From TrEMBL, chain A:
Belongs to the TRM112 family. Signal peptide: none annotated. GO terms for molecular function: protein heterodimerization activity. GO terms for biological process: rRNA (guanine-N7)-methylation; tRNA methylation. This is Trm112p-like protein.
Automatic annotation (TrEMBL), chain B:
SUPFAM superfamilies: S-adenosyl-L-methionine-dependent methyltransferases (SSF53335). Keywords: Transferase. It comes from Cyanidioschyzon merolae (strain NIES-3377 / 10D). This is Similar to methyl transferase. It comes from the Eukaryota. It holds the Pfam family PrmA. GO terms for molecular function: methyltransferase activity; nucleic acid binding. GO terms for biological process: methylation. InterPro entries: DNA_methylase_N6_adenine_CS, rRNA_MeTrfase/Polyamine_Synth, SAM-dependent_MTases_sf.
């Protein structure tokens, strides 16, 4: 799962953004530089979610991401720079994060407590595949009591 | 693969070499049947032609109910560079990914495509995708032969997700109903082509042979 895809996903039950946690493996796979696509995506991105994701995967691009997304009034200047062939640190960071950083194993946590598993690079966002840690804990407790 | 759109034939030839062109054990209640290769090629070719050449590589597309990924891969071959394939069946997605790997071997120019898969239920209540995240949504929905209006639920989801275009297949017999419904939503919709879909025998009650059904390929321009 690329971080681009992560930014488009929400919890199937509560419709909230999901936090990446307990990352077990990350792949970096370079692809062709796509500044026009990245520029197009900027206004649609959940920027704080992207920043949090960059931290979760311990990306070295975190520092290249400003606190807030470039505003619509800043975009034309960025477009101009791209058309004239400039490499912008912001777009380099977005290229690396959105298109080249893959979470191979990990979890997607909803603020309501349940989480969804990313296995083999494919996130499972089915409501009935949600893992509810409190239920799991109480089930385990029940098993322990039975066993003793 | 850059620039002009490859022909339907070229796309079809590549797709027909993929290892998983059919579901191994289709789940009847989901009305799982793989989009025939020639239909996938035709749909993808049409979608690509509808998007300006200089924009084609920077639109984000979603394939709803991607199954073994045939339509998603066809879109990549047609020159769309960002495709997300989603399906409720995570086992099918593993086949889709194997198909993608096979395609990259056959057609190294496509390796650069940003193709992703995620297990997502394409139903309004359990959808795990943010609204208006995509420029284009394509779908080959269940035709509703098992579950009534299953295709309409898919279509509603597609219109909720896409900013611009939805391409969808529906039984021709539902044409006037769909047309009224889409008009009510304020969408501009037209039937682009009438096609024959050879539905595998699995899905036809009390019949042993596969049947052809008439389907329409709709192009829907979503209200902004
Ligand atoms: Zn939730």
């Amino acid at each position: 799962m690329r971080l681009l895809t992560h930014n488009l996903l929400i919890c199937p039950v509560h419709k909230k953004p999901l936090a990446i946690r307990n990352v077990s493996a990350v792949d970096i796979i370079p692809v062709e530089y796509q500044p026009r696509f990245l520029l197009r995506m900027i206004p649609r991105l959940d920027w704080s979610l992207l920043r949090a994701a960059a931290v979760s995967v311990e990306s070295d691009c975190v520092d290249a991401l400003p606190e807030a997304a470039p505003s619509p009034s800043e975009l034309p200047a960025l477009e101009k720079a791209v058309e004239s062939g400039d490499r912008l640190p912001l777009l380099d960071a977005l290229q690396r994060l959105l298109l080249e950083t893959h979470v191979v194993g990990g979890q997607l946590h909803c603020e309501h407590g349940e989480f969804y598993v990313i296995a083999d690079g494919i996130p499972n966002l089915l409501a009935d595949a949600a893992v509810n840690p409190s239920e799991t804990a109480s089930e385990q407790a029940a098993c322990t009591t039975e066993g003793s | 693969m850059r620039g002009s759109v490859p022909s339907v034939r070229e796309i079809e030839t590549l797709l027909s070499q993929l290892p998983w062109r059919q579901f191994q054990s289709p789940r009847v209640h989901l009305e799982q049947y793989t989009t025939p290769v020639h239909l996938a090629a035709r749909i993808a070719h049409h979608v690509a032609l509808c998007i300006d050449e200089d924009e084609r590589r920077s639109v984000q597309a979603v394939d709803l109910g991607t199954g073994t990924g045939i339509l998603a891969l066809a879109l990549c071959l047609a020159g769309l560079n960002h495709v997300l394939g989603v399906d409720v069946d995570s086992e099918a997605l593993e086949l889709a990914r194997a198909n993608a790997a096979a395609l990259w071997e056959l057609c190294p120019q496509s390796v650069g495509a940003v193709l992703e898969f995620a297990a997502v239920d394409v139903q309004p209540n359990s959808l795990a995708l943010a609204p208006k995240s995509f420029d284009v949504a394509v779908l080959n929905p269940p035709f509703g032969t098992r579950q009534r209006s299953a295709d309409i639920a898919f279509l509603d989801v597609a219109c909720h997700l896409s900013r611009r275009f939805v391409y969808s297949l529906h039984k021709s017999s539902t044409r006037s109903y769909l047309s009224r419904r889409l008009e009510r939503f304020g969408c501009t919709a037209q039937v682009y082509a009438r096609l024959r879909f050879d539905l595998p025998a699995t899905y036809v009650f009390h019949r042993e042979r596969a049947v052809d059904i008439d389907v329409d390929l709709w192009q829907i321009e979503v209200k902004r």
